[in-house]
């Protein structure tokens, strides 16, 4: 019995030592803790987060756009996917689609080295009542 434990210990040590020490690992975590407050005013939706970040959306042609850059963010008209660049030339992908039944989702990803990293998801109904917001942050780990 001790012989088997000894062999398992040697195999485990070998596996640990054979790992690439410069390998990068990425873990996606929900940005937590955070709370948000949603205000619906006429043709605007204002979302305030605990980190003092504020998003203001305005309605045009039955859809909602981000104030300031006029980019589509909420829609119940049709599924769509498009790519964006910000002022720093970072690349983003936005997917707007019907999730199930009467629910819709807008998913925004940051693209780094052809990898899509989730940033922000909005879940809402046909009347644009937001029922859930998921914000993500990526954490890079480097083994030493």
Notable features of this structure?
five-stranded antiparallel sheet, 144 residues, 12% helix, 58% strand, mainly beta
How does the SSE layout of this entry go?
Elements: H1 2-18, E1 24-30, E2 36-41, E3 44-49, E4 54-60, E5 63-66, E6 72-74, E7 80-85, E8 91-100, E9 103-112, E10 115-125, E11 130-142
Antiparallel strand pairs: 1-11, 2-3, 3-4, 4-5, 5-6, 7-8, 8-9, 9-10, 10-11
Quick summary of this structure?
The chain is mostly beta strands and 144 residues long. The chain has one helix at 2-18, and strands at residues 24-30, 36-41, 44-49, 54-60, 63-66, 72-74, 80-85, 91-100, 103-112, 115-125, 130-142. 12% of the residues lie in helices and 58% in strands.
Termini separation comes to: 34 Å
Strand content: over 45%
> What is the tally of helical segments?
1
Radius of gyration: 22 Å
Low-confidence stretches: 19-31
Q: What spatial order of strands do you see in the largest sheet?
A: 1-11-10-9-8-7
Fraction of helical residues: 10-25%
Average the pLDDT over all residues and give the rounded result: 78
Shape: globular
| Helix/strand structural class | mainly beta
Described by strand count, sense and barrel closure, the largest sheet is:
6 strands, antiparallel
Strand tally is 11
Element order: H for helix, E for strand: HEEEEEEEEEEE
Characterization of the model:
It is a single chain. It is built from one helix and eleven strands; from the N terminus they run αβββββββββββ. The strands form two sheets. A six-stranded antiparallel beta sheet has the order 1-11-10-9-8-7, with no helix packed on it. The protein has a five-stranded antiparallel beta sheet with strand order 2-3-4-5-6, with no helix packed on it. Helix content is 12%, strand content 58%. The model is unreliable at 19-31 (pLDDT under 50). The chain is mainly beta.
């Amino acid at each position: 019995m001790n012989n088997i434990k000894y062999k398992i210990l040697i195999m485990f040590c070998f596996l640990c030592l054979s790992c690439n020490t410069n390998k990068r690992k990425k873990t996606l975590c929900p940005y937590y803790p955070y709370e948000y407050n949603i205000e619906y005013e006429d043709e605007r939706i204002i979302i305030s987060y605990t980190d003092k970040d504020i998003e203001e959306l305005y309605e045009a042609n039955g859809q909602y756009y981000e104030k300031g850059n006029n980019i589509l963010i909420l829609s119940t008209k049709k599924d769509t996917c498009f790519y964006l660049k910000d002022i720093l030339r970072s690349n983003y992908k936005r997917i707007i689609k019907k999730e199930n039944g009467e629910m819709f989702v807008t998913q925004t990803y940051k693209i780094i080295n052809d990898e899509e990293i989730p940033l922000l998801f909005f879940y809402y109904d046909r009347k644009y009542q937001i029922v859930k917001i998921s914000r993500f942050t990526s954490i890079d780990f480097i083994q030493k």
